[in-house]
Amino acid sequence: MVGGYLAGGGSGALPGGCHIRVTEEMPIGNLQFTMLQNFGMQRDLLGDSTGIISGLFNS
Description:
Elements: H1 28-38
């Protein structure tokens, strides 16, 4: 499993001081896909992603 780290606040969109741990093997593409969706880019999937990471952004 590859760890991911997000810094900055995304103008309030990304909650600070939180740690999200996933229990199953999750592709890093899910993090990238979730970020793209949050920034308004609508796609079905990205690379090897299997879906979005719920609860990552405040929006």
